[in-house]
């Protein structure tokens, strides 16, 4: 099979590329490196079945050519991370909505199956925990830039499902919940790599808000297996699936676990949201997925506990780090 992955030089995209290459398939990556990195795919470049194009997903003719060459499309390209969303709301909305429009329109010409990566952010301020795919989405006010990302991804979902209903383009939507693992950076506010790097460097571990907000962290290898399985399964078409872990932890406890596992002397510091992001910033108090739907269809089950995931991330940063980060060197 020939697989197109937009955003393929990103954290999840690079792991997905590895999975398909390991299966014997050919992979075509499209990425403008705005949030992805060539370092994520450097080790794949010598594989004759791996191809990459550095270009924006907004470039219709490039997308059209790549779609034409491939059998299926994963659309992962998006503006990601709370910091980027708050700092660059125009880029967030345009990247997410217009990029998805281009991919779906080009895929529709040849009826190539498309999997759209959405996000748990679309549940917004809903209190119906655990979140179910058919539950209500509760968005915050349009005056709060925080919710522009959630709204743009919800539009992506509506558009993908409309293409299936109206034009019979086979589409699948997945809502990803806090995917973590090796190669993820904290550059755009991702909490686990940020905490790990701060702990290894002996810097203050910065917890935004009061630390009582809770999340569920899924291992990237598990998420990738679910993505591949859903792409392979004909009954996934026209549906929405949560993908994540259901092991819930609050962020202050997460910081304490990272500190203990790294044997760090770092202080845990609470930073008000108004200082971290913007005045009036709103966050989701809990974000817990119901994963029974994806489990029933493709047998998805998280394989690693949070501590096992953290151990992998810590080992990755210790291996990648300069000597100054390695505790035994100083």
CATH superfamily of the largest domain: NAD(P)-binding Rossmann-like Domain
Described by the principal axes of the CA atoms, the overall outline is: globular
List the uncertain runs.
Answer: 323-330
Taking the sheet with the most strands, its summary is:
7 strands, parallel
Helix content: 40-55%
CATH architecture of the largest domain: 3-Layer(aba) Sandwich
Class by SSE composition: alpha/beta
Number of structural units classed as domains = 2
Work out the radius of gyration: 19 Å
Oligomer: single chain
What would you note in describing this structure?
Helix content is 40%, strand content 17%. The chain is α/β, with parallel strands linked by helices and 330 residues long. The chain folds into 2 domains: 2-180 and 219-243, Rossmann fold; 191-214 and 247-285 and 304-329, Alpha-Beta Complex (UDP-galactose 4-epimerase, domain 1), CATH 3.90.25.10. Strands 3-2-1-4-5-6-11 form a 7-stranded parallel β-sheet, sandwiched between helices. A two-stranded parallel sheet has the order 7-10. Helix 1 packs across helix 7 (220-232), helix 4 (89-110) packs parallel to helix 5 and helix 6 (191-201) packs across helix 11. It is globular, with a radius of gyration of 19 Å. The chain starts with a strand and ends in a 10-residue tail after the last helix. Residues 323-330 have low confidence and may be disordered.
